[in-house]
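MODEL INPUT / OUTPUT PAIR
PAIR INDEX: 1
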Amino acid sequence: VRPDHPVMLDAYERRIQIWGDVELAWRLNERSGLPTPKWLCLTGTNGKTTTVGMVDSILKAAGKKSIQVGNVGMPIVYAIADDEPYEFFAVELSSFQLHWTYSMSPYASVVLNIAEDHVDWHGSFDGYKADKARVYEHTQVACIFNTDHVDTLRMVENADVIEGARAIGFSSTEMPAVSMLGLAEDILVDRAFLKNRYNEAYELAVLQDLAPAPGKMPAKHTVENALAAAALCRAADIDPKAVGAGLRSFKTGAHRNQLVGYANDIMWVNDSKATNPHAANASMSGYPSLVWIAGGLSKGVEYDELIAAHAKRLKAVLIIGTDTAALKSALANHAPQVPTYNMTAAVADSSDGIAVMNAAVAKAAELAHPGDTVLMAPASASMDQFKNYAVRGDAFANAVAAQLADS
């Protein structure tokens, strides 16, 4: 429900408090009189669900009783009412949930990244950022931020936290300084949560632990997600060995940079969850040579920056969807040398998403060569040809399975 909905405006006028489900859960959590789990909370424009899954995997590797809640997994109010003696909640929070949250006090918190999204709901990009920043309020132990996204540092600097809470940075692009997690060559290291952090570091994992396929390197955003998850868990004093074990055992969820096929040194990757250019940018950055399946319901976004950034890695583009003018224009302006195929026009019924996806996968099989990645990261919403992004992702995965079985 939007903040400017008449019911909400009436409540404001009457000075009636408005709570979201997270606020209600926190208040129940505080008043139960029972031992309460530690809340490890995260938000961001992209990568939330992958990261919260990594957190939960690490906690379970450490032998902790944990559960994924909030914007994914069990509704958080149900988890509070559950009889299970949870030690930890791995809490994914959307900007919508955070807007209506006031008193929550995370044990540790992180904003993974920030890019323009949901401006129609929040009223402005500044409004969106302000709601994301609420995750840091009242944090008890560690406010974790991405040093490559300066806005996340500003959020930490402006947060009203519990006295003693530390600011902990992470970066996938630089050697970690003191009170940071980052990369030392191909090793994920912790220089934040140890006494002698000025002279030592804990080894947590290596890049190959995060690789999508044998001999392949993980994408930058995968490394960032892993470092954020590690930082949340290290803030809770989880053993470094358990961090590595949890990252190695973690499997990416469906539709989020998911490897659905690998044959003849060609990877087939389903990132149907990439419903905006920022999310698609994260996926595309991880692969050097792409046959890209893209398009759908654009929601009025622009693609120029995305295409300009990745034109050199595009081998071919297969366009799906019915709202494709902005994508086609960006390709013509910034990647005119890249062959482009309109797969929607190749089928009799343009609204038949399954037929369009089957045609796109068949064409991709013709175009891809060893070393390429066929990436379905549409940078658009799905509702023009599919019920939702999950149905779109399943259509891609099924088409790939059929294609590889026939080849």
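PAIR INDEX: 2
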Amino acid sequence: MTGKFPSFSPGSTVSSALPSYVILCLALQVPRLVSAQFTVAGPDHPITASLGGRAVLSCHLSPRMSAENMEVRWFRSKYSPVVHLYRDGQDQYGEQMLEYRERTELLKDNITTGRISLRIRNIQLSDDGQYKCFFKSNVSYEEALLELQVAGLGSAPVISVEGHQDGGIRIVCRSSGWYPQPKAQWRDLQRQLLPSASEKISPEANGLFQTEIAIVITEESNQKVSCFVRNPRLNQERESVISIAELFFPRVNPWMVALGVILAVLLPLAGYCFWRQHRAKEILRSEMERQTEALRSEMERQTEALRSEMKRQTELGLIRARSYAVDVTLDPDTANPWLVLSEDRKHVRRGNTRQDLPNNPERFDHCYCVLGTERFTGGRHYWEVEVGHKMRWDLGVCRESVRRKGKVTYTPKNGYCVVWLRGGEYAASTSPRTSFPVTIRPNRVGIFLDYEAGEVSFYNVTDRSHLFTFTGTFSGTLRPYFHPCHSGKNKEPMIICPVPTEAGGNLCP
């Protein structure tokens, strides 16, 4: 061999150099493929979210790198359809599951560092379970597993007295609307746990759970107890207290004791005094029947007394609320053009024609409603509204910042604490909504706002009964809300009434 390079023709040079060029390109590409490898990580603990609330599920790439040009897919047990899909630099909704439509939002603030979060709104029971976040680049893909735990805080426990049992009073506590299964227990005045007589947890039609727990209170035991129901996922509980009066406990009749002594003496002489024994049995039977009837009457009397006391407490609550009466008027700048307001801005009804009014930002253009002029940022405030014989109406309070244009959805999350009458049913705008029974149809409704306590209470002024109370935490400005619905020719006005200074009150002018 010589030290000279061999000579080639031009054609042979290109064909011989081509394999070397391919090898060189692959060699340069290897570091790029290796550097593009990544892993996906999520939280190492379940994410807990409340029914009707929001949940944020987060994943990130390791090492940090931009995911702007990657495919990011969130799904449940199947790869497709998806919970949410990001591809080609934008959100894709064609493959999204129907139950997640308009409920998801991909948070991309940190997408350049490989951290992406999925926000799910209006949490439902079906959202409970496992999720996968999937990242895919041109050369690699990885996924991470997350778990979302849905929880529902149920209603305040309702305690009722259900008669005598084992020498004491049987008390039953009921509560509904919980998820997952709640834990219910009894406590005494010292917050010590008490044994229950029975406990039952059963599913409701909507997938939530209701609980029923009972206890027997004796005269010797603590006669003031509380029932509390706790959600294990939220670590929150609701509690109600009851105090049992001594009159509920049956007393031993001295005559019965004496009769027992007499019978003990006469029994050995039964053969000799058969006719006396027969007579004593008749007397005993009659006395027992009398005592049973007396005990039943006493129980009915005490139950009625308890009901009267509960009604008295409700009336006292209404009297207290009335002491915070304010003068409320209607704000014409917020009224829907189909509504007709009186000159004193105390009456509102649905008109026959649409008025030519300026479409200012404050005016409702879709919902036939109007707000009160007054704005509340604290304190206690009470007003009354005459609804008469209207077949439909909505009343309550709302945040000043509520949406004025387009369709209105009543929920506390959207800023509405409203009760209504529709189709003969009375309900509150909770999520899901809460129906409540009404014994006497209210011709006038009282609304009491306690801003600092986070409560809006509604009263049937007609029979001075309590209808419903919203509880929560308020922020921002609140305003009275009126919706004079009508059905057919029933266009009776809704009237803001002066609050009477004496019990019994006056009718609206």
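PAIR 2 NOTE: The two ends are 124 Å apart (CA to CA).
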